[in-house]
Amino acid sequence: MNVSAKPRPTGHQGYSETLPCLKESAGTARRLVRTALAAWYLENLTDTGTLLVSELVANAVQHTNSRMIRVVVSRPSERFVRVGVVDKARVMPALVRPGQDLLTGGRGLLLVDALADRWGTDLYRWGKQVWAEMVNEPAV
Question: Which of 1, 26, 46, 120 has its CA 20 to 30 A from that of 35?
Answer without folding.
Answer: 120
